[in-house]
Amino acid sequence: MRKLETFLTLALLSIFVFNWAYSLDCKIVTGSCPSGYSCLFSLYSTQNSHAGACGYYTYSVCCDEIFSYMNQTCNSSTSAILSFYQQNNTHVAEPNYYNNWKLCAGYSTYPLECTIRQGPCYDDETCLVSLYNTVNSHVANCSYYNNSLCCKKLSDLMVNSSSFQFPSNLIFGSNVTINITIWNIGDTTAYNVNVSCYENGKLFDSKIISSIPVGSSYQTSCNWTVSCLTNISVKVDPNNLIKELNESNNEAWKQVSIIEYLNVTIDYPADEQRFYRGQTIWLNSTINSSCGNPTSYDVYW
After folding, report:
1. Which residue has the higher pLDDT, 167 or 17?
2. In the chain, % of residues over pLDDT 70
3. How far apart (Å, rounded) are the C-alpha atoms in residues 234 and 48?
């Protein structure tokens, strides 16, 4: 029983630590936000409320690690998470509904990823407030309305030249497995990660990784029939379905050397052709490799 209690305690502790480290912490408080938290906007009430700039109403919507501001447009380090009809005593809506004021939010130098979701937020998301509707709406605490403003940090998937592991001998026509390591150096878990492999830009295999936790790596593989196309590249999330902190580190390539087959054909003399003793003859042959004419070779008779 003691072992079981210890195991459960450690399991709960690990869940707590994971959520604390990689999830946003947001709350609605009376007055100013506590130390370590930033105010995003204010509410007249925690239920069925208008919204305003921070300090306008009594209740503050506070999150840790986030900075925000109101403006007509957001810069590259932030993203619009809501739009306001006016700065104070206002209804709110999805980011593109009102053109007057955008609530822009980010953390560090990266935009915050937010979605208005019907029902509860996903496990890797944090609810900020709930909305009566996605447009022209009152706002409230997360349990009051059915539309949740859900926000999360971003993952950052990375591959580089050290990601590849090839077999020692790549023989033309053989089927080989290329092992590939992908890292997640972002701030949250990445889900349904597409890893695609190419030879000279031509797709030959792809895999889906269900999840890569933050701060970890995952090894997958691509199956390749060795060909003459020896520029091998890998792309992670090739269709950009996952929004990341850095989109420029999702591709790597490597030029490989292969072992080709040589095909030697005797052109002259012909089969069963007769010659007399002491006669001088020329031997003609054609040599081809698996990938065309070889660049150089030695001939021994």
Report:
1. 167
2. 89
3. 50
Q: Walk me through the domains of the chain, giving residue ranges and CATH numbers.
A: 23-152 (no CATH), 157-255 (2.60.40.10)
Give residue 124's pLDDT: 78
Q: Coil, strand or helix: which one is 283?
A: coil
Contacts 24+ apart (CB under 8 A), 84-89: 84/41, 84/51, 85/136, 87/52, 87/53, 88/52, 88/53, 88/56, 89/44, 89/50, 89/52, 89/56
Q: Could you count the other beta carbons within 10 Å of the beta carbon of residue 116? A: 20
Average pLDDT, stretch 118-147?
A: 95
pTM reported for the whole predicted model:
0.65
Token pair of 31 as six digits: 């007055």
Q: Write down the residue that tokens 């003859």 correspond to.
A: 281
Residue 264, beta-bridge partner list: 287
